[in-house]
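Thread: Newbie trying to understand structure tokens

Hi all, I'm a second-year student working on a class project, and my supervisor (Dr. K.) asked me to get a predicted structure for one chain before our next meeting. I've only ever worked with sequences, so writing a 3D structure as a token string is new to me. If someone could post the tokens and maybe explain what I'm looking at, I'd be very grateful. Here's the chain:
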Amino acid sequence: RHPLIYGLSSTTSEAQKVAVYLAEILGGSIDSTASVCHGPGTVAKQLAGIPTCTLGEVKNRADLVVFWGCNPLAAHLRHFARYSVLAKGMERPQGRKNRQLVVVDVRETATARGADVFLQVQPNGDFEVLTALRSALKGNKLTEKSYGGIARDQIEAVAGLFASASYGVLFFGMGLTMTRGNHHNVAQALKLAVELNSKTRFAMIPMRGHGNVAGCESVLGWQTGYPFAVNFSRGYPRYNPGEYSATDLLRRQEVDAALIVASDPVATLPAKAAGYLSQIPTIVIDPDYSLTAQAAQVYLPSAPAGIGAAGTFYRMDLVPLPMKQILQDLWPSDEQLLSTLLEGVKQCSGSRADKSMTP
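---
Reply by user tm_fold:
Sure, no problem. This is what the structure looks like when written as tokens:
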């Protein structure tokens, strides 16, 4: 009566499109892993907008790179060399020598150790630091000795550094989206970037994790109008993070079946939500025999996208990239498996499938 389709962040956009169609015909809910990572950042973008750019512009133009709440040297291993700090571009031919690096985090990470400026913010103090930066940027006098664990003179110095850059880019991670304040933190950072654009050129890019989580938001956006946490139970798409997010649906036991695609929620979701998957009929489509696959009633192995199956992936800057099949795999692709399921559901659903909005 109310199935959940979840995951989809490590599969192709073509497979994601079929999954949306399947959720619509079933009258269920569909959600991606964005709801437990960068979903708050997406909500903030809806509220405040986002001045952004491509990674190519970062490589070619940026003289100031900021990493806030992320550690690319551990999580995005080629980011420094290909796109940001070390990359040699048209206007930054010397790479690192042409750039300043600012890192904001709650601990000294590998990325922070190589920074020109490191701000060690107190846990959950990001909103306060961002608010102080905005105030300093507007020329207001800061009265407190510190904000979010950062000294007043440091705040003022960094605000001046941001304003004096010819092209600045702020990359933000889960250290900003999933701490206290959630989307309010990101919205404050976005407002800071917007205000900086009255003085210089400044952009923001989320440091997305899974290979095609940005693509999943794009596919859901063009198919339903909403980026994640979408429900079709009334025959049309409804959007409400916190109500139709996978974690909340599972925690409240509001779904009675689940289809997990290219994700491992048993390893990543809270225990109460993940445990419910073993109590309902759960199907897993994944190249790996994950913890979720082990707990599922049905496991369908698939070819890994970009290796055993071709398709489209979206980069973190929303540039679509064609992924080639480089090896012949024993198993079908996620798109083929989902299409087969879709045809079976269509036969069972009859006229309801003909009235769906998805072509």
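A couple of things are worth pointing out once you decode it. The chain is about 40% helix and 20% strand. The longest strand covers residues 100-105. Feel free to ask follow-ups in this thread.
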